[in-house]
Amino acid sequence: xxxxxxxxxxxxxxxxxxxxxxxxxxxxxxxxxxxxxxxxxxxxxxxxxxxxxxxxxxxxxxxxxxxxxxxxxxxxxxxxxxxxxxxxxxxxxxxxxxxxxxxxxxxxxxxxxxxxxxxxxxxxxxxxxxxxxxxxxxxxxxxxxxxxxxxxxxxxxxxxxxxxxxxxxxxxxxxxxxxxxxxxxxxxxxxxxxxxxxxxxxxxxxxxxxxxxxxxxxxxxxxxxxxxxxxxxxxxxxxxxxxxxxxxxxxxxxxxxxxxxxxxxxxxxxxxxxxxxxxxxxxxxxxxxxxxxxxxxxxxxxxxxxxxxxxxxxxxxxxxxxxxxxxxxxxxxxxxxxxxxxxxxxxxxxxxxxxxxxxxxxxxxxxxxxxxxxxxxxxxxxxxxxxxxxxxxxxxxxxxxxxxxxxxxxxxxxxxxxxxxxxxxxxxxxxxxxxxxxxxxxxxxxxxxxxxxxxxxxxxxxxxxxxxx
Length: 469
Prior knowledge:
By secondary structure, the protein is an alpha/beta fold. The protein contains 15 helices and 13 strands. Helix 1 links the parallel strand 1 and strand 2. Helix 10 crosses helix 12. The mean pLDDT is 90.
């Protein structure tokens, strides 16, 4: 007898900008992402997703312009391609007040905030949301972003991950090691708010950072936020295997996803973690119809508004390559970049014959990661992704809120009929909701909502007790 399937984790993939992944769709009537500046757009959507019992909503972010297209950056501005865009951490704080259960995750690059300040911000948000914050750790693959933060130029790929290694070391020390359990007393009679013997400076000194501490915020419900990572290069996978609790993948097929999942899980085990300490989310978009014909008609309507130039500008920008004048039949194997190397590797593996061209890359996000059909057909395909080791889906929208309404009304009932989606939230933090019922996962000894004791951050618990004050 076959084993029952685990439920799929559901996340909405968002960005506070008019054009995120599927460029040009903001022009379609009913596409409300043009209201990205209005807080009500996001609070209404968050409440809709929470009513549908989504596990998370996740905000992507960039802190600079993508690389040139046709010799300049005008195309990004004219097409609204991730410019203008707003700071997701500010929006997240409002959504924490508007919701009670859904996880609230966002991207923050190691280049943009000093680790001490970032650790304080995350802990504050985790308190304010009652333990529902997630952090997507990125190194920024955009050259302009590095120049926006006092860097002379684009930091090479391997050096970016060395930077990230030290950055997470600092924030782990602050979140896990600076305050012991029981340090907060709030003793009105004695007039002692916290026990100084249980609050520690971290005295970090490294190649990039010197951070004395202590952490200014008391331990939040999760201490360390739920940790996401999306790097798919060889170095990015190794970083995810050490640090991530969830991995976002934009794989072109279930088979390509299996390659990534198996590799990262094996590396995690080699680092002393459990293979099930990580959850994998596939980035997918959906076109849902009550019949195949209706689904194809809807797809054709969306395709009318897709902007091929915008797709090319985005794809090239992520690779730090100007694709404006590159022939569409150029083989990707001939392209070298310090940008998103994992994107190239994944596309090459996912293309029959392993010989994709620039044209294949431009079509990739619009076609290869889009499921079109009836709810039954779509869930059949999702089961193939699950069989490849995928734990959840990060739902890319064509339009907001319509893409999520379509999924909720069309696909979600079929997922629930097959036992693949939750109908109620489990109690506890974001981490507990995701991992609470997972085989092989052990929560941190200090608290049920904390990182597993197998996570490398756990070594900083109690590490500073004997450091002189």
